[in-house]
Fold each of these.
Amino acid sequence: MTLRVGIVGTSWWPDAMYLPALQGLDDVDVSAVLGRDAQRTEAFAQRWDISAFHTQPEAFFDHQLDAVIIASANDSHHRLTLDALDAGLHVLCEKPLGLSVAEATEMTVAAEAAGVVTLVPFTYRYMPVNRWVKQLLDDGYLGTPYHLGLRYFTGFARDGEYAWRFDRSEAGSGVIGDIGSHWLYLARWMFGEVQAVNCRSTSFIARDERPDQRPYERGEDSAVMTLEFVSGAYATLQVSAVCWEGTAFGQTHELDAHGSDGTIYATCDWENRQQVRGVRAGEPGPARDLPIPDRIWGAARRDTVHNTYRDVFRQSGAMIGDFVNAIRTGEPTGPDFRDGLRIQQLCEAALNSAAAGGARIVV
């Protein structure tokens, strides 16, 4: 039976992530697209051979859809998700779910009441480096976990131009809710539930005015968060969009984790380095390579990280394929809206902590 999917959003992200992946799945028909600009939405529909395109949600939701992917601006997630749930649709919604915990809570409660499949695409959990680290942790490589360090360095904030990502009225925050939400998700996925958050953040770059000259609150471009886990372990997360990495893709991800029985290091430079190393307690250093197993790589290319990323989502069925399969089988999948709500709570706690000079916020 063909699954009818609607797409909300016509930016580069659905163009690069969702449409190529959906086209690779059997018995999936992308039936309609919703966008803000009529000309751009029509061009998007023609490019992907989508039969119907709309600029009004009412007309879009009138289609006989089974599921919707919401990849539009952050400030539209709440309203459009509730519309989709009212129509009885399964929903994949980009993070953050809403602009606040209150919005995310309403969305989550409505989705659970509707009994539909939901998914929030924290994409980095699907990448080979992080999947391998997670397996090592689950297999006890660290023993009792002590502390975790995660660093996300990128440079998209360096130019100082106006960008919706740093407009709190549209994005909800700056890097904390953007790249920071990915790292908060990974930290919780790897080390367990979080009980308290501290955060310091700043804006190093003076950002331009909005094109319409309306005043807006600038979001942070750099932040450091400390998490306390229920287990007693802790993590330090640094996320910054003002870093010059000097690589083609302009970002670097680093991880270190320590525990009673060993240490794990991981690096992904978004060029060609995807490496995990480790050393067990009592062994002489330095840490040795812990090659990512073939079963985790699957059919993904290993030449550049960008190609790996493309193949993980477009060829292996990761994330989007999981969402479609869950709809068809009724089997649970994740990260779901409940996970997305929890990450939004952690983001909001980090923002509140930063506003209070780094105060400890219990979550």
Note: The chain has two domains: 3-116, 124-303+342-355.
Amino acid sequence: MGKATHVNEQDFESQVLKATTPVLVDFWAEWCGPCRMIAPIVEELAGEYEGKLKVVKVDVDSNQDIAFKYAVMSIPTLGIFKGGEMVERLVGYMPKQQLKRRIDTALGASVS
């Protein structure tokens, strides 16, 4: 079963920007209530999209340069990266079905 991987400033480029599959990046922090609410959903999505979408987590407190580079002003922010570029930005908590619709659209899949 797929699982979200923690990445940091040292491996962000290799794990996200140079990934051969699209990547969902969860920008979060330990103290963030909405981040804790969405975390189990992100883990479920990692399993459901295994093989189609890589899921990683970036702690914005420990990796401020990445957060700054991608203008993460509010958390949780979920970014979908394809070919090294952020193609979709989802800010704030949202229900799983809404997240899946946005992910499917960004991946180019049909929306159910």
Note: The chain has a mean pLDDT of 93.
